[in-house]
Amino acid sequence: QVQLVESGGGLVQAGGSLRLSCAAAGSNVRVNAMGWYRQAPGKQRDLVASITSGGIANYADSVKGRFAISRDNAKNTVYLQMNSLKPEDTAVYYCIVTDIGHMPPRNYWGQGTQVTVSS
Fold it and tell me: Measured between alpha carbons, how far is 28 from 102 in angstroms, rounded to an integer?
């Protein structure tokens, strides 16, 4: 079993920055891919960014050039640095990790953290 603990959400004015973090813990955890999704009220949950175990990142077009995903493999932690925030970035942000330490591999979701950007 993998536990994910997210932190870093909050209220920020447009143009501001926030940094989210998500730490994975558990016995025999081997984290492979990590990423962030977001879900605004009344909308589906969409991918924001992902990063492979080797550090290759992928971004949604809407956040390219503004957000940066990174990870610390020693800490099983993924980060999302969000700059130049816009009101349309307002959503609940969820981290997701793939654990390959157990068979079959399985995805785990964080509890979600609210990001609110005021205009």
Answer: 8
